[in-house]
UniProtKB/TrEMBL annotation:
This is Armadillo-like helical protein. One of its GO terms (biological process) is meiotic DNA double-strand break formation. It comes from the Eukaryota. PANTHER family: PROTEIN PRD1, PUTATIVE RECOMBINATION INITIATION DEFECT 1-RELATED. Signal peptide: none annotated. It comes from Lupinus albus. InterPro entries: ARM-type_fold, PRD1.
Length: 1141
């Protein structure tokens, strides 16, 4: 008790006596220190009521301390004074002092300074503001830190009002604090204390705003420091102050400051996402808020600055940090979503072709697609409603901004309808229901266009949350209820759209039953034309899908009356196929209904009119797109619907009607496109009478243009290049079509042998001859073979070119001279094949073709009376022609030589030509055995082999004689095969032409003597040493067999070949090598009327496929496994015969 009295007496004396003012600075400092110590040691009042001992002295003491602090220049005095004031603040005595001083402190707003009766000066807050400036400017850091500590406790005291804080700001305390930060080098502890004080001063928003703008650059420097320190005490305060400035004074942020802020914040988020640095949730939220505010600032949207890359990186790290954190924070995720929305909106500002913003937009969509959407769908059961709503709102905002349907398709691919009603089952509040239906409406706007989701937006509050209740609404009838009508329109739209994407919101039987009930209840409305054709179209499409699904898997009952109403809507043009998307199941079911085929013809005509593809690329779609050529082609290519019949009937009607040429061209082009997409469609079109329909054009009196004729040619070509021959065998209409094509282009008055029409027709005629080899189109082929105008045209073209001689070298495939020649050569090849294959033709005209006439004629200048080119003309083309001409001429010459050989052998004839003529041909052929195109070289080698074999019937026993070229060919072959470095499958394959020549020479009755100098024992041994079992081909085996027969092989070589053949046979059986026969050539279907190169390539592929030269799967250079095995057995048989003899 006595100590308390002494303490009280000491404090009273200090306050009352003037000693504190009269003494020196040193004594004053000591007095304040003692007062500080005494106050700490004795804090309870003498009355024993628990109150603080300093309360009675506070009003005087506070003014005294403030006055001393303001007047002193001594740092020790300042330190002790500040320590005492700070202690008073911690003990809440400043608050109590304020209460004592309340009668005058807050008069006139509490901020004016005035003199009172006791001599004290103005409000304490003004006194403290003035007094603390000296310590804040002190050169002693401890004094500054103490002053800042006092300010922090004073400003954070419960009794400190907002008006008092405003006074502090108006007295420029914030400016002093910013200066301390700047002078401290942005290091602790000054930074920590200053930012805490600034955070408290920011409560005075309006007054602090101007100071904040001035000190903003200082805050950025502070952020650089605190951003690198994990969990820095004032990280959050620094970001808060920056956010205040950026959000409330956006115009003050310069471009360089904005760029630096984004980079620093992005680095923070990256470190947090990567786990390098921890971060409080509040810090993360404010960091995201700053980035979002910066995105909205005028500086960020200027043309001179593009922060798309940095924003993209910030978005990625913020999303990763939220989604994959160990503990989910709702506010963090919501702020991240807000940042994502702002960034997406930013990506749509300015130029739509800005590559960096396009990349940012793509990145955000990718985040939604690969992170947010899967996270939402898989974790919905454990999520809070606020998070789900935030994600849905984000997706909705993207749908509203996104001009393309890509994100809408992403949502739909995630079974969005089912997910949406799953959400409504988990969260039953109106907020969730409204958000779900709003998003669905925007989804349909994006997917279907034309503001399709409006009905759902209008009825969102009235729609139920359960799909079963949706069906119940659909089956109700209330003409006077606008809400019900709106809800029913929404239900139809939801069911229609979900069915497009194979989502089943309810059992198909229940949906069909409700839909039929809706149709029957509203049947009276369907009796009259409606203005809402789109609604009717969706109704029909949904109904046809449900019926189609019933046919596919399981049958269920349906209402015939409802079906009749639907057919009535279709036949009365209430249904527009092109106005809405339709599922392929729906389309197929409609095309299976015979009663609506006329309406479907009309719809197909509308389709062809709306997207005429003449001269454009084919656009392909998928199951959920509007009607396109692919979906129609797939329908036409199958026989379980009326698709082919509909198009054939439509084309026939157009051919009969006048003034519809444009429509006819459109339909022809689309049919050609469909065949190019699905080649099997050609079979169905032929079975449904496409030739008869085209024959209608032949007999039509309507004039037609060059364009329509070319469109017909394209369709005919596409069909004939894709159809199976047996499909054409019974159709005689093609003969009429063939005659019409020839009359139009090859008649003397119309013929222009360089025109596209002429060349196109020649290509089609070649196709017809090719198909007739398989007993199809026989009548059409006869009309071609015996057409005098065509024969004359062929002879004219060949004569004109043959007379050119060496000049022909300058005519490549693109010249007006070479193009007709190429097509005539193709026609010649197929004509030769047709002559040889037709027993019926020989029966009608026995001896019509004497193949030896192609070798020599009594009058060489006399043209042939049938389609054909003589040997000497083909040889000229082989020698002087371009690569393509050489190739086709070589095929024709080989086919011609085969026919001559067959005739000579079957009739035992002698050659009618001279040996000199044969040797001149041989000279041409020998020079092409080493030609770069292996096909040309092989064909010429085979021709040369045939010629060598004619020695027996040429009245010349020494046709080969000492011909240096044959010897050179064989020497080159043996040296190449015996050279180790050159032994490979591809190289051996390149020697096949020379092998054919060697085989022919070895088969001669009298083998030239020089052959033994070519096939020496060392040479043969070298070849055998280089060959592996997998290198063997049927040609090599024939060569070995002929060498064996001619006794060129010794016993050791025979043993080597024997072992090699055993291994080869073992490989064939053990690996089950497939037949080496060529696959069907790829159909090169023609889609435009002007690319003749495709026709030429396709016809050459047909020719090449008949003499397949490529190696098979295991690398055996042979046309088939069977042939290789046969040659192996033939060698063994020959070896056995030789052994027996």
């Amino acid at each position: 008790m006595y100590c308390m009295l002494l303490t009280s007496k000491f404090i009273s004396d200090i306050i009352i006596s003037p000693v504190l003012y009269q003494c020196s600075e040193e004594i004053r400092g000591e007095i304040l220190f003692v007062l500080y110590k005494v106050s700490i040691l004795q804090s309870t009042s003498v009355e024993g009521d628990g109150s603080d001992i300093l309360i009675p002295f506070c009003p005087k003491l506070l003014y005294l301390l403030g006055d001393v602090l303001m007047k002193t220049q001594n740092d020790d005095v300042r330190s002790n004074c500040i320590a005492l004031l700070t202690m008073l603040a911690r003990r809440h005595l400043l608050r109590e002092a304020c209460e004592y001083d309340g009668t005058y402190m807050f008069s006139s707003g509490g901020v004016n300074s005035q003199e009172f009766e006791d001599g004290t000066k103005g409000p304490l807050v003004n006194l403290f503001a003035e007094a603390i400036k000296g310590p804040l400017l002190s050169s002693e850091s401890d004094v500054q830190i103490g002053a800042l500590d006092f300010l922090f406790h004073y400003l954070s005291s419960e009794g400190t009002s907002d008006s008092q804080i405003r006074v502090m700001v108006e007295e420029n305390i914030a400016d002093y604090v910013f200066e301390i930060v700047r002078l401290s080098g942005y290091k602790d502890p000054a930074v920590k204390m200053c930012l805490q004080v600034l955070d408290l001063l920011s409560i005075a928003e309006d007054a602090f705003k101007l100071r904040l703008v001035v000190g903003f650059s200082t805050l950025i420097s502070v952020l650089r420091y605190v951003a690198e320190v994990p969990f820095h005490p004032v990280q959050c305060e620094t970001l808060k102050l920056i956010y205040e400035c950026v959000s409330k004074c956006p115009g003050t942020v310069s471009t360089s400051q904005l760029e630096e802020l984004v980079l620093v914040l992005t680095r923070m988020l990256r470190k947090y996402s990567d786990g390098e640095m921890g971060m409080l949730p509040e810090t993360f939220i404010i960091a995201c808020s700053i980035v979002a505010a910066l995105i909205r600032s005028p500086s960020c949207n200027g043309a001179a600055l593009d922060l798309s890359k940095s924003i993209e990186e910030a978005m990625k790290h913020a999303t990763s940090a939220c989604l994959y954190a160990s503990e989910r924070n709702i506010n963090q995720l919501l702020q991240c979503l807000y940042l994502l929305k702002e960034a997406f909106e930013y990506s749509h500002d300015g130029s739509s072709t800005d590559s960096s913003k396009l990349e940012l937009r793509s990145c955000i969509l990718d985040i939604c697609r690969t992170h947010l959407l899967p996270w939402l769908v898989t974790g919905i059961d454990e999520m809070e409603e606020e998070i789900v709503l935030g994600l849905l709102e984000t997706f909705h905002s993207i749908l509203l901004l996104q001009s393309s349907t890509s994100f809408a398709e992403t949502l739909i691919s995630s079974c969005w309808f089912s997910f949406s009603y799953g959400c409504l089952g988990l969260f039953t509040g109106d907020r969730m229901k409204y958000r779900i239906y709003l998003l669905l409406s925007s989804l349909m706007d994006s997917l279907l266009g034309n503001d399709s989701g409006k009905s759902i937006r209008d009825a969102a509050l009235h729609l139920p949350s359960d799909p079963g209740d949706l069906l119940f609404l659909l089956g109700q009838r209330s003409p006077n209820s606008l809400d019900l009508l709106s809800c029913q329109s929404s239900v139809l739209l939801i069911m229609y759209t979900s069915s497009l994407y194979n989502e089943r919101l309810a059992d198909e039987k229940l949906v069909l039953a409700s839909l039929e009930q809706y149709i029957l209840l509203n049947s009276s409305d369907f009796q009259y034309p409606t203005t809402d054709n789109l609604k009717v179209t969706r109704l029909v499409n949904l109904y046809s899908l449900l019926r189609g699904l019933g046919q596919m898997g399981y049958q269920f009952h349906y209402s015939r009356e409802a079906e009749e109403i639907v057919f009535h809507l279709i036949n009365n043009d209430e249904w527009d196929l092109l106005s809405a998307r339709i599922h392929t199941v729906s389309l197929k079911w409609l095309f299976q209904q015979e009663s609506i085929t006329n309406s479907l013809c009309h719809q197909m005509l509308k389709f062809c009119r709306s997207c005429n593809l003449l001269g454009t690329d084919i656009t392909l779609g998928n199951n959920f797109q509007t009607v396109n050529d692919r979906t129609l082609a797939e329908l036409v290519s199958t026989e379980d619907n009326y698709g082919a019949r509909i198009f054939v009937c439509l084309l026939e009607q157009l051919f009969k009607n006048e003034g519809q040429e444009h429509d006819t061209i459109s339909v022809l082009n689309h049919m050609a496109t469909m065949v190019s997409i699905c080649p099997t469609a050609s079979d169905q079109l032929c079975l449904r009478g496409i030739a008869t329909a085209i024959r209608t054009w032949c007999y039509s009196s309507n004039p037609f243009s060059k364009t329509s004729f070319m469109s017909i040619l394209v369709l005919v070509y596409n069909i004939l290049s894709s159809v199976h021959p047996e499909t054409l065998s019974a159709d005689q209409s093609w003969g009429t079509v063939t005659m019409k094509m020839m009359d139009y282009t090859i008649s003397p008055k119309n013929m222009d042998n360089s025109s596209h029409e002429f060349l196109f027709v020649i290509g089609i005629l070649s196709l017809i001859l090719h198909l007739s080899i398989s007993t199809a189109l026989e009548e059409a082929s006869k009309q071609i073979l015996f057409n005098t105008s065509l024969i004359s045209a062929v002879n004219t073209i060949v004569c004109a070119v043959s007379s050119a001689g060496p000049v022909l070298v300058d005519h490549d495939e693109g010249t007006s001279t070479a193009k007709p020649l190429i097509f005539v050569l193709l026609l010649d090849y197929f004509a030769i094949k047709r002559y040889a294959s037709s027993q019926h033709l020989h029966a009608i005209l026995p001896g019509f073709v004497d193949w030896q006439n192609f070798l020599v004629s009594t009058n060489p200048a006399e043209p042939l009376s049938f389609i054909g080119i003589r040997c000497h003309d083909l040889c000229r083309l082989l020698h002087f022609g371009s690569p393509v001409i050489k190739l086709i001429a070589s095929y024709s010459l080989l086919e011609l030589f085969n026919r001559i050989s067959d005739q000579i052998n079957s009739k035992h004839e002698e050659l009618k030509c001279t040996v000199g003529y044969l040797r001149s041909i041989m000279s041409i052929l020998e020079g092409l055995v080493f030609y770069s195109d292996l096909r040309v070289a092989t064909n010429c080698a085979l021709c040369l082999s045939i010629l060598i074999g004619w020695e027996k019937v040429a009245k010349e026993t020494n046709l080969i004689g000492k011909r240096s070229w044959c010897r050179l060919i064989m020497e080159e072959m043996t040296v190449s095969l015996a050279t180790p470095a050159l032994a490979s499958q591809s190289f051996i394959n390149s020697q096949r032409p020379a092998i054919h020549v060697a085989i022919a020479v070895l088969k001669l009755h009298k083998i030239p003597l020089w052959v033994r100098s070519v096939f020496t024992h060392s040479c043969i041994s070298g070849i055998l040493h280089n060959l592996a079992a997998t290198d063997l081909s049927s040609e090599i085996l024939v060569l070995f067999r002929e060498l064996l027969k001619s006794e060129f092989l010794n016993s050791e070589q025979i043993a080597t070949i024997n072992a090699m053949l055993q291994e080869c046979r073992k490989c064939i059986y053990s690996h089950n090598v497939q037949e080496g026969l060529p696959n069907d050539p790829i159909k090169k279907v023609h889609t435009t009327p002007y690319d003749l190169g495709e026709i030429c390539s396709y016809l050459i592929d047909l020719i090449s496929s008949e003499t397949y030269l490529d190696k098979d799967t295991w690398g055996f250079h042979t046309s088939s496994k069977k042939r290789l095995l046969e040659e192996i057995e033939a060698f063994f048989s020959t070896l056995t015969v030789d052994d027996d003899s």
